[in-house]
Amino acid sequence: MSKPSVSIRSIYDFLESMSASDSARRALISPSQSLSYGELSGAVSTACGRLAALGVRPGDRVILAAPNSDDWIVVAHACTRFGAVVCPVDPGLTPGELRRRIELLGPTLIIGSAQVVEACADHPEILRRCLDRGIGSAGDLSWDRVESANWKSGQPDPGRLCAILMTSGSAGEPKGVALTGRNLVSGAEHQLRHFSGHGAQRWLVNLPLHHVGGFIVLFRALVGWGTIVVQERFNADEAIKAITQHGVTHLSLVATTLRRLLNADTLQQAAGRLQAALVGGGPCPLGLLAQAQAAGVPVCPTYGMTEACSQIATWRPGDPPELLGRAAPVIDGIELEIRDEAGHPVENGTDGEIWIKGPMIAEHYWEGPDRLIPAQQHGWLRTSDIGVMEPNRYLRVLGRSDDAIISGGEKIHPLEIESALLEIPGIARAVVLGEDDPNWGQSLVAVIQATEPIKEGEILSLLRARLAKFKIPKRVEFLDDWPEGAIGKVRRRDLRLLILGK
Q1: From CA 168, how far away is CA 487, in angstroms rounded?
Q2: Among 181, 191, 177, which residue's Cα sits nearest to residue 280?
Q3: Burial environment of residue 389 by CB neighbours within 10 A (0 to 12, 13 to 18, 19 or more)
Q4: pLDDT tens for residues 11-29?
Q5: Hey, is 412 helix, strand or coil?
């Protein structure tokens, strides 16, 4: 059976067209059930009827705050199909953080875990439904108890707002990124094309679905007519089991979860079965990437952001091996320029700020109900990241512009030093901060997590052999318990407060 053509305009009818063409094809596999495209289409239609029965209207925001599950995916697709705006939110937020999300998003409905539903009890103006099954006190608010009503979808509009995703917030308070159908489908299409077209891929989803790296997989699978294998959270043995039993071809990791995968006793069962293991969320030690390749895991370091629907540049198996972990080709469909501080493009090989343009790039940020602010300037998004464009559209990322440290008049990008630290055996994680210094303006402090005994003097000596004198940290702080977000990304603001007190 040939795959139907999926256009940006028809994405809101994708399940119907796919289920009509090949209803038996597997769409979703979870620990509790396996759904074909025909069955998924029926489940989504039922969920749309529940939204209608609750009084949700097209354009209303629906907060979805629950752990990964098949129900989560059905509800997210239903919001998209129905015309509501799905707003994925971390279910582990504190009550104060959750309150700020509610104020920002202005939802009509909150669908979440029992914990979230109970935490929102002081918002009687907002409809609440519990996604958990078999939960005691919240049983009367169960999503499954809502009777499905008749509903009718509106005319599909690729420019319609589909989702509001929160940025990771590693450097500050997260922002709401407003993504349209055009953004999501274009991002999925071009990312699939980057890995040689629309093959029948099977994606393991163990990144949180409220994070763009997990959320975009819903659209990659649909556009490529692939299969999603969903797990609530990352577990190395369960991931390997999914690869071997369900034929997973692609998955996304961060450095921490890649290390756990490589340390699993059962890894040899999955070695050589994967086509790509995307590794993002920050720099990954070159030694860890080499270890993965030696173990048969096809690691693909990736640089991306929520505003780009995930990937901007991703290394692929077959790219020059000497560039692994150092530079990656820009995704097809993304225009990318390196610009100086005045906003003028610079020559290849010169560092500057990364600007991006393309149909997958968000046009707006969400500042509150009916308050959208432009994200782009003349069609271009300023990323605030610093990079260098190498030949053949290979991008080398140096770090955040707002992370730059000025020491003794020298502008230093912490990522360069962090990358050097991560190449030292025994260092699993590294962040470099700028500390106020009466003589130099700022001095460098290296914060590291060590996996084996290593002394500060040894670390600094190894750095001196690789970096200029002004890039050598003044001191090293050892830390085991790191402040991090849902995908293991370090919260630099909280780390600064912990180490420097501000």
Answers
A1: 9
A2: 191
A3: buried
A4: 556 667 766 777 788 999 9
A5: strand
How sure is the predictor about 153, in pLDDT bands with cuts at 50, 70 and 90?
A: confident
CB 203 within 8 A of CB 227: yes
Compute the distance between CA of residue 161 and CA of residue 371 in angstroms, rounded to an integer.
13
How far is Cα 357 from Cα 334, in angstroms, rounded to an integer? Answer: 6
Please state, in angstroms and rounded to a whole number, the distance separating the CA atoms of residues 112 and 342.
45
Report how far residue 6's alpha carbon sits from residue 20's, in angstroms, rounded to the nearest whole number.
13
Q: What is the pLDDT of residue 5?
A: 45
| Cα distances (angstroms) measured from residue 2 to each of 6, 35, 200, 202, 220 | 12, 20, 12, 18, 18
32 contacts: CB under 8 Å, gap ≥ 6: 69, 70
Question: What are the backbone dihedrals phi and psi of residue 318, each rounded to the nearest 5 degrees, phi first?
Answer: 105, -15
434 in helix, strand or coil? strand
Token look-up 């098949």 returns: 70
How far is CA 396 from its chain centroid?
A: 19
The pLDDT tens digits for 365-396 are 999 887 999 999 999 999 999 999 999 999 99
The model carries a pTM of 0.85
Say how far apart CA 314 and CA 75 lie, in whole Å: 30
Tallying the residues shown for the chain, one arrives at 502
Side-chain-side CA neighbours of residue 482 (13 Å): 23
Q: Using alpha carbons, select from 219, 209, 226 the residue that is nearest to residue 181.
A: 219
